[in-house]
Amino acid sequence: MPVPHFPAINSETRTMPDNSTGIYASFSLEPVEQTFLTEKEGRPIFADKEFVRIFISGDKHTEVYREVTENDKQRFSDAYKRFKEGAAAREQLTGTPLSQWPYLKPSQIKELEAVNIYTVEQLAALSDTVKQKIGMGANELVAAARAYLATAENSSAASAFAAENERLKDEVTRLQEQMKEMALRFEALESERQGSQPTSGLMKR
Asked: Which of 28, 58, 112, 173 is most exposed by smallest CB count within 10 Å?
């Protein structure tokens, strides 16, 4: 079975940092015909091979699809780890799926996915060059995505602060209960000690 061919990204793109510049990857397991064994055995023989699809957000023309190398596993370690854990291609991307962001219409989601943008984080990270390629409305979408993420981050920080505050309150209450319990024990021991002291002096007849 022939391996699908996609235009390779140039050497300059390969050396660019990954997620920070909009380069992402998804992994899959594909059956590849073993030509030598097929001819030798006289029947189709296939072997499962790991493939990687490397793409750039906002650019549907620059993409590579090939067998996985050790460098791919390290370069896109998070995505590869999720792939090995059984995640599908879309699930290997980290972030909020566009479909979970109420700001977008279904038609906008389809248009963005057509140019390899699948999460709010990918949209927020688009460069000016990519925004120009997308065209009218791209600036507003990117600004909205960044605002959404900033609001979510602030909300998360507030929630974390509130949770920590509750934890400290619980810790103080627990310590107060321990101190009260220790005071009661000490009081009981003191009473027991005083009660066990011998009576001094002799009774006169």
From this structure: 173
DSSP the chain: -PPP--PPPPHHHHTS-SGGGTEEEEEEEEEEE-HHHHHHHTS--EEEEEEEEEEETTEEEEEEEEE--HHHHHHTHHHHHHHHTT--TGGGS-S-BGGG-TTS-HHHHHHHHHTT--BHHHHHT--HHHHHHH-TTHHHHHHHHHHHHHHHHHHHHHHHHHHHHHHHHHHHHHHHHHHHHHHHHHHHHHHHHHHTSPPPS----
Q: What is the pLDDT of residue 73?
A: 94
Global model pTM greater than 0.85: no
Torsion from C-alpha of 11, 16, 18, 20, nearest 10 degrees: -150
What distances in angstroms separate CA 170 from CA 4, 156, 162, 163, 178, one per listed residue? 59, 21, 12, 11, 12
Share of the chain above pLDDT 90, in %: 20
Q: Yes or no: say if 26 and 88 are a contact pair by the CB < 8 Å rule.
A: no
Q: Each residue of 46-89: pLDDT tens digit?
A: 888 999 999 988 888 888 999 999 999 999 999 999 888 887 76
Distance of alpha carbon 22 from alpha carbon 17, whole angstroms = 9
50 and 67 in contact (C-beta within 8 Å)?
Answer: yes
